[in-house]
Design brief:
Number of strands: 0
Order of helices and strands: HHHHHHHHHHH
Structural class: mainly alpha
Low-confidence stretches: none
Distance between the termini: 38 Å
Radius of gyration: 22 Å
Number of helices: 11
Shape: globular
Mean pLDDT: 84
Oligomer: single chain
Length: 262
């Protein structure tokens, strides 16, 4: 079993390692490994106007997606945690998880059918792209926040504050939000990692001026191999940093939850 596990990990890591090596290789054609060493590919990626524009678009989409997840996901998670009971609670959880169960291609085709009509001619717009990212990432935010609210025992804290006369606004600002700060940060970093690497829906929904980094990255593989490898390494580095930061904040939130429970 250890040999199988190591072989599986090597199988997963080999493509990433080859991409990293290829991003520094001068020539990579017909061989297992590239030859030579150069920084030229990273310089070309940084100087390419289409990649700079796509990178900026991706950052804007990530920022708006995180903001919308915060503005919509937190109230929705709070409503499920505090108000939903029994079958209503189960139904609400199923609805929030539907975008994960439905393939992204199905969602993208649905967007195309609905928003390419004369009544809603929004296909290819930046805001439709951001809305698509919101649909794909919102379930992760809601599910994580509901779980953290239950583990923290927010209902007991709010009930105690309510018996002392604290209104809803005071309970929200002085109890709920401070308790959920690490959870919210972890959710936003997770959303950023998912949004920065999303390709399928973005490729079908985005317009020429709203193409994200992964969409433009696909076109790079039709040209220079080293250039495409360097562009891919940049995307992997961004997603990895967001994932590591999310994991770190999740550990901090878990420790705070454990201390609160004990």
């Amino acid at each position: 079993m250890p040999i199988v596990a190591v072989a599986y990990l090597l199988f997963l890591a080999a493509p990433v390692l080859l991409l990293f090596l290829g991003s520094f290789g001068e020539v990579w054609s017909g061989t297992l490994l590239p030859s030579g060493f150069t920084w030229r590919w990273y310089e070309e990626v940084a100087g390419d106007p289409s990649f700079r524009r796509a990178f900026t678009t991706s950052l804007k989409v990530v920022g708006i997606t995180c903001l919308l997840n915060l503005l919509i996901g937190l109230p929705l998670a709070y409503a499920i945690h505090a108000g939903a009971r029994g079958g209503v609670r189960v139904a609400a959880r199923i609805v929030t998880l539907m975008p994960i169960a439905v393939p992204e291609l199905v969602l993208a085709f649905g967007f195309i059918l609905v928003f390419s009509s004369d009544a809603l001619p929004w296909l290819g717009s930046f805001w439709l792209l951001a809305a698509g990212h919101l649909v794909l990432t919102l379930p992760y935010t809601v599910t994580a926040l509901v779980a953290d609210m239950e583990q923290l025992g927010l209902a007991e804290y709010e009930h105690a504050a309510a018996t002392l006369g604290a209104p809803f606004r005071t309970r929200m600002w002085d109890i709920t939000l401070p308790q959920l700060q690490p959870s919210l940060l972890s959710c936003m970093l997770t959303v950023a990692a998912l949004s920065i690497g999303e390709f399928q829906l973005s490729n079908l929904v985005s317009g020429f001026l709203s193409r994200t980094y992964p969409v433009v990255l696909l076109q790079a593989f039709y040209g220079a191999t080293g250039f495409a490898c360097a562009a891919t390494v940049v995307l992997l580095a961004l997603a990895t940093l967001a994932s590591l930061a999310s994991g770190l904040t999740a550990r901090i939130a878990g420790r705070r939850t454990a201390r609160a429970i004990t």
